[in-house]
Sequence to fold (224 residues):
Amino acid sequence: HLSEGNVAVIGPMEMHEMRSGENGVLLITIQTSFAMLEYFLSHRISPFFVVDTDISQLMSKEEQQELRSICLDLALSYPGMPEDDAGKCFILQAKLINVLINLLPKAERKSDDSKMTGTRAKTISRILEYVDENFQHKLTLGELAEEENLSLSYLSHAFKDAMGISFQEYLKRKRFENASRLLQSSEMNLLDISIASGFSDVRYMMKAFSEIAGCSPTEYRRSK
Fold:
């Protein structure tokens, strides 16, 4: 639970969902990558932080103000950014990463884990990107394993190690996410939404909503 002034860090490929209370919420969200500085820092850092607390609790008031200032400058400068200002954004992101590197070792931090570094991390990233672009279609982990020239068993375990859930569960949640967005933003009927979201039929979509949202698609639409 976060309140005004709190700061949270979500690691690479970490499953997450954000929900607001009754009064809504205003977030400044910054997405960046350690890869942009890996030439300088890859030998010194691991990006896979584990932080289950409001990190502002780990900071002095001066450090909190510095972090908020960097995030606000990034949020204000990036939209519609002319090419001449690209350097400014790079510098601000480097400052942000530096703050996190210096701060988060005070919290629980994973060491370089072979499960999530190097070739395996790149493989999982490719699969996630492919799923994001093709979840509306029929997808099987077996086909992806063949494409990656890996065994189905190896890729299944690697995916679950990386994401904390199975490939089928991840795919179901991606489809649920798209269906829930269409329920809120369109007048499409349930059949068209299920097709547009990659569910084989309405029954599977209804089952996904029951498991994830605890209600039917129709009830979900009414509640929003």
